[in-house]
Design goal:
It holds the Pfam family Peptidase_M16_C. Belongs to the peptidase M16 family. This protein has helices at about 1-20, 65-75, 85-95, 120-130, 135-155, 160-170, 185-190, 190-200, 220-230, 280-290, 295-305, 335-355, 360-375, 380-395, 400-410, 410-420; strands at about 25-30, 35-40, 45-55, 95-100, 105-115, 210-215, 250-260, 265-275, 310-320, 320-330, 425-435. By secondary structure, it is of the alpha+beta class. Strands 1-2-6-3-5-4 form a six-stranded mixed beta sheet, with helices on both faces. Strands 7-11-8-10-9 form a five-stranded mixed beta sheet, sandwiched between helices. A hairpin with a 5-residue loop joins β1 (about 25-30) and β2 (about 35-40). α11 runs antiparallel to α12. The radius of gyration is 23 Å and the shape is globular.
């Protein structure tokens, strides 16, 4: 009976996701190369206007790290037609909200307004692209803002630097070896001419995807988009070369120190393939198997049953060019870091040599079906997904079809991917320790 109920639940989730979650959209290019994606949803009188630029920390010069994240701040300073300090006031006065964020691969800006303010959102984003004011005063102001952010989020935040230490060991050539926030000295040393050159190179329509999602009239939106973005000149084509890393073939031992912690941590980290690959999705599923929820393998074993760890889990940090797969644990009591690694390795070996049970496999499939059903529950989330799938994957319709990749993953795939990537001779083992 239990198996029948489980199968019925799975069938319901699949049917619901197939019938209720398809995101309709239209996409096209402007003559200047800007890609446009429109999604109509009249269920609420709101509209999201978003622009994703294909520029992130990996596009920076080695001695000028932090530029992409810096621009996330700098391009709120003001424009030819928006005075310094007025951007957020305009948004708030018109019932909206806005934000931006940067990763190693892209930078994303958005506004959410009542739908009668669609034109305002388009005008503001076109102003950011066409008429930004990049001057020394703004650079100096935002330099201090970024430094304060680094102090709050990195320098004084417990366990905030483990990824920095891991990536330095995982990547020797690729720019992923750095941090998104960058080195403050590099920003201090950058000249105004360098900031202007960065903007001219990357903040161009042919390096941007515009998404308008929400309560819109498609024909009217197209007309407004052409009026505000069509006249913006195309920039020079951006040539990108993916820097390839040599395989890791021998174990790497490393230590990192954090003055903000009292309890150490242990991480085993592996370099994995691009998030565009099926293998990366299999690693997502392995992460769920290992560490999603209190019934997951690592929590149940290390935290609940053996009481060796305060926390344990797995993270699949998938990115455009490569991924970093991290398994971690925080010891409890007198437990040695090496003992936690031994216990984790036992579970990885099981994955590599045995098929997970049908019941566990079905549970994983149900988890991913549920995530898919919930992933596009807001217009704001849909806008982000449409932009991300277009810019980083080159396939906007993955918003509807990526779940099919997860459905195609078999128990044999899980076993083979674990064997392919999660081996002791292919990893960094990082002891993350309180600073002496």
């Amino acid at each position: 009976m239990k198996k029948s109920i489980l199968s019925l639940t799975s069938a319901f989730l699949v049917a619901f996701s197939l019938n209720a979650q398809k995101v309709e959209f239209e996409e096209y290019d402007l003559n200047n190369g800007m890609h446009v994606i429109l999604h109509q949803d009249t269920s609420a009188p709101v509209v999201t206007t978003a622009v994703m630029y294909h520029v992130g920390a990996k596009d920076e010069q080695p001695d000028r790290t932090g530029m992409a994240h810096f621009f996330e701040h700098l391009l709120f300073e003001g424009t030819k037609n928006i005075d310094k300090g007025e951007w957020f006031k305009i948004v708030a006065a018109n019932g909206g909200k806005n934000n931006a964020n940067t990763t190693d691969d892209r930078t994303y800006y958005y506004e959410i307004f009542p739908s009668n303010n669609l034109e305002l959102g388009l005008w503001m984003e076109s102003e950011r692209l066409l008429h930004p004011i990049i001057g020394q005063e703004g650079v100096d102001t935002q330099n201090e803002v970024v430094k304060e952010e680094k102090r709050l989020r990195v320098d004084n935040q417990p366990y905030s630097r483990f990824l920095e230490y891991v990536k330095k060991e995982i990547f020797k050539k690729h720019p992923y070896k750095g941090t998104t926030i960058g080195e403050m000295k590099h920003l201090d040393d950058a000249t105004l001419e360098e900031f202007l050159a960065f903007n001219k190179k990357f903040y161009v329509p042919n390096n941007a995807t515009l998404v308008v999602a929400g309560d819109i009239d498609i024909a009217n939106a197209k007309s407004l988009i052409e009026a505000y973005f069509g006249p913006i000149p195309r920039g020079a084509d951006i040539e990108r070369t993916i820097i390839e890393e040599e395989p890791i073939t021998a174990p790497i031992a490393a230590k990192g120190y954090d003055p903000n912690i009292q309890i150490p941590a242990i991480m085993t980290a592996y370099r994995t393939p691009s998030m565009k690959t099926k293998d990366s999705r299999v690693l997502d599923m392995i992460s769920s198997y290992l560490s999603t929820g209190k019934s997951s393998v690592l929590y149940k074993k290390l935290v609940d049953t053996k009481k060796m760890a305060l926390q344990a889990g797995a993270i699949n940090l998938s990115q455009e060019d490569y991924g970093t797969y991290i398994i971690y644990g925080l010891p409890q009591g007198e437990t040695k870091l090496t003992d936690i690694v031994t216990e984790i390795d036992e579970e990885i070996l099981k994955l590599q040599t045995e098929l997970i049970s049908e019941k566990t496999y079905q549970k994983l499939q149900n988890q991913f079906e549920n995530q898919f059903v919930n992933s596009n529950s807001s217009v704001e989330g849909i806008a982000n997904s449409l932009a991300r799938y277009n810019v980083l994957y080159g396939d906007t319709n993955l918003i509807n079809t990526e779940i099919e990749i997860y459905r195609s993953i078999t128990r044999e795939d899980i076993k083979e991917v674990a064997k392919k990537y999660l081996n002791p001779n292919q990893r960094v083992t990082l002891e993350y320790l309180p600073k002496k």
